[in-house]
Amino acid sequence: MGRTTPSYRMAVYRELERIKKTIRYLPRGEAAVLESLLDGIEETITAYLHVSPPPDPFEIIVLHMLRRIIGLRSVKTADEKR
To answer: In the predicted model, is pLDDT for residue 65 greater than 60?
Structure first.
């Protein structure tokens, strides 16, 4: 049986909290980068919930971080073309 949207969103936020607790023990530079990659995750959660929640909430976090990395690379590539 699947989770409802609110409970699934809460599962993602619980996973995020666990990750953020771990990030606190990393060197400051790494922690800052990882924190910035997690910013704005609500958009990715919403996109997933429009389709179908994955079996593991961590999948949403991984996809979001990949989206952020791709976005950062796109900005860097556009800046290099100038």
So the answer is: yes
Alpha carbon 71 to chain centroid distance?
13
Q: Measured in Å, how far apart are the chain's first and last C-alpha atoms?
A: 52
Distance CA 78, CA 18 (A): 35
CA dihedral 19, 25, 29, 33 (to 10 degrees): 0
Q: pLDDT tens digit string along 15-56?
A: 999 999 999 999 999 999 999 999 999 999 999 888 888 889
Coil, helix or strand for 82?
Answer: coil
Domain chopping of the chain, boundaries: 5-81
Burial group, residue 52, by CB count within 10 angstroms (0-12, 13-18, 19+): exposed
Over the Cα atoms of the chain, what is R_g? 15
